[in-house]
Amino acid sequence: MPWNTGNGNGGGPWGGGNRPGNNSNSPWGSGPRKGPGQQPPDLEELLRRGQDRMRGMFPGGPKGPKALILGLCVLVAAWASSGFYKVQPDEQGVEILFGKFVKSTEPGLHYWFPAPVGEVVTVAVTNIRQINVGAQSDEASRRYASVRRETDERQMLTADQNVVDADYSVFWRVAKAEDYLFNIRDPEATIRRAAESAMREVAGRSSLDQLMTDRKEALQVEVMQRLQELLDYYKAGVLITGVKLLAVDPPKQVIEAFHDVNNARQDLDRQRNEALAYRNDILPRAKGEAEKMIQDAMAYKERQVKDAQGEADRFNSVYESYRVAEGVTRQRLYLETLQEVLGHANKVVIGDRGGSGVVPYLPLPEIQKRNPAKGGK
What we know:
Layout: H1 43-57, H2 64-81, E1 84-87, E2 91-97, E3 100-105, E4 108-111, E5 118-124, E6 129-133, E7 155-157, E8 163-174, H3 177-182, H4 187-204, H5 208-212, H6 216-234, E9 238-249, H7 255-324, H8 326-342, H9 364-370
Antiparallel strand pairs: 1-4, 2-3, 2-5, 6-8, 7-8, 8-9
């Protein structure tokens, strides 16, 4: 039934059940919502004021049908005037006629049928609300690190067959007031159960390492999207603004073994990083030395080839000269050879035409001074 909202306590077709802000126990509901701190009009008070006004109009007191009609008019006017209501900037109004939703209203001053014909419910639509699953945030510090473990709702199975305890918070607000009031009986319980379903679905497709390390941020976004899809399917009128993973730990029974495995993995990663660092240091140097040796060999090859080509070209040029002028070339080669052989030798030349006064003399001390490396030999 459309009037069975709140926590299911009913309230009749005229409202007054368990809608947010409805504290009236009257079978006719509380009438239009006037905002925080304002109460619905009191009929007895209105009747008393109407009687006082009638006494002022009739000093001798109202008498006859005319007085009765005037009294009824005053009562009707007072009842009709109670239909004015105000919606605050952070709220959205919902107008109900005979227990059926008619329309929603934006912030401002509006008019609707007073109770018991009509009713107005205002809902805060800008406040961000929080639901903690598996943990209770410390309200004093509001830090995610300060959590208190609760029930088995935090346990779930990962894709690599590991059981983990996950604590997370869901942030949401009302997006559509009429759907929020009429389509779901207990909004917070519905959001909590839908969040558990979405988190278990995402965790079942992820490994333990992904939940704890590298894909944590992406998984939060994926859970938020899946949760929003579920609530849209229920037409809950709720917008999920964020999902925050507070802690993901293995169960208490295996926490010590898990820490040992985690420490071993850290040692493995450390040793692997050291090996990679050593490889990154030694390989570039070895490659550099190998490249240097290759470059030196290529340079030596080029030099030897060029020298051989130069010698061959020189020999060919000499041979061509010899073919053109054989005698001249032979004489030139003879002289060049003697110049090359005798150019660095110590020698004394005595011609055969010397005078009779010339005494042959071999200057051995001078030769010894000019050739100290031979040790005087």
